[in-house]
Design brief:
Distance between the termini: 22 Å
Structural class: alpha/beta
Strand content: 15-25%
Order of helices and strands: EHEHEHEHEHEHHHH
Radius of gyration: 19 Å
């Protein structure tokens, strides 16, 4: 199956993910599939979500209103979990991307994995290890931003590497060959996104 044919459900915990990372997260998501469902959860009457409101439309993300009925209880988590289970049983998606730094979602991830669906986690570096370890894979959103900045800064240095020099890097060549072999279809062609995904998951 081609990467573009994989239907992704992207569920965002508005209480735990800062809006400033949205561009990098949505770019990263396309490496794993096509986001056909994009929802963000929170109490939109609260001022801390105001920055999210400004960018929802341009990113085609549907806001889901969830009032905090009880002090000290996170109603947003419950709404996300219920929607994730509904989507799991709907048969309309092939994979999940959960954007949160909250370890309370670990049992949800494990349940989705049991059903054979991959779960891509996105969160800050403060995310508890149990949630990080349960996702396949987990992407630290701060690293997405720093990686983009590093690419810009190091662009000229990378251009200096010759083709011959890259060919002599045996570990790199072996990794690329294995990735292409694993991602290749019956005709021997491999989708670049699947090759990148294999390298990310196995290196």
């Amino acid at each position: 199956i081609m990467i573009k044919d994989i239907k992704l459900a992207v569920l965002i915990d508005g209480d735990n993910i800062p809006s400033r990372y949205i561009k990098e997260m949505m770019q990263e998501i396309t490496k794993y599939g096509t986001p056909t469902v994009k929802r963000i959860y929170g109490d939109w009457t609260k001022p801390h979500l105001s920055k999210w409101k400004a960018i929802l439309l341009e990113n085609a993300i549907t806001p889901i209103q969830q009032y905090g009925y009880t002090t000290g209880k996170n109603a947003t988590d419950s709404a996300m979990i219920i929607d994730a289970m509904d989507l799991l049983y709907s048969g309309n998606v092939d994979a999940f991307a959960l954007m949160t730094s909250d370890s309370d979602f670990t049992p949800l991830v494990l349940r989705i994995l049991e059903s054979g669906f991959p779960v891509y986690g996105f969160g800050e570096e403060k995310t508890p290890k149990p949630f990080v370890d349960s996702c396949s894979p987990f992407i630290y959103i701060e690293k997405l931003v720093s990686a983009g900045e590093d690419e810009t800064k190091k662009g000229s240095a990378q251009a200096k590497k010759t083709k011959a020099g890259l060919r002599q890097n045996r570990a790199l060549v072996r990794l690329l060959r294995t990735a292409v072999d694993q991602a290749a279809d019956d005709d021997g062609w491999a989708n670049m996104g699947q090759v990148a995904s294999y390298i990310s998951n196995n290196n």
